[in-house]
Amino acid sequence: MIVAFSVTPLGVGEEVGEYVADAVRVVRESGLPNRTDAMFTSIEGEWDEVMDVVKRAVAAVEARAPRVSVVLKADIRPGVTDGLTSKVETVERHLGA
Question: Domain Thiamine-binding protein spans what residues (predicted)?
Answer without folding.
Answer: 3-92
